[in-house]
Amino acid sequence: MINNEIIIEAKRLVERIKLKYPDFVSKTASERELAKLERELKIKLPEWYIELFTTVPLIDAELGIQEDEPDEDYDGISYIIWGGVDDIIDESNKYEPGISVLKDGYVFLASCSHGSGDPIYIKLSSMQPSVFRIYHDDFSKNQLADDLTSLFKNAII
Q1: Phi, psi of 25, rounded to the nearest 5 degrees
Q2: What confidence score (pLDDT) does residue 3 get?
Q3: Residues in domain Knr4/Smi1-like (predicted)?
Q4: Cα separation of 104 and 107, whole Å?
């Protein structure tokens, strides 16, 4: 099943992170926290999303994405920090672009660890959601990964 791919690759990613950074500690979300997330955002979370957040310790993990073509001054890699339930609620209810894009089905996933203020989102309506950076100044989107599975598979540690 497609959704199992997401979970399998997410677990592989966490294993890769722990190999490189043995002291790495991240966390999962509880079902109670995810129920709060559904209430606060007034959405129904898909089963795969609940399984991902409750079984794979991704919260607070930092990973790299090859966002741009490298040049002599810049490797083109952007680093993101996977958000927790409170981050998702805050980004969706208190800040732009989260407030506006939630109406279109986009849910906050991660923040930019470089401090750009341009967060990372997925569209929950898809079984294999694409991953986007949505810019806070004009809400334009830059697709970072075709789907979560490839994000996890290709993440740079």
Answers
A1: -130, 120
A2: 62
A3: 29-152
A4: 9
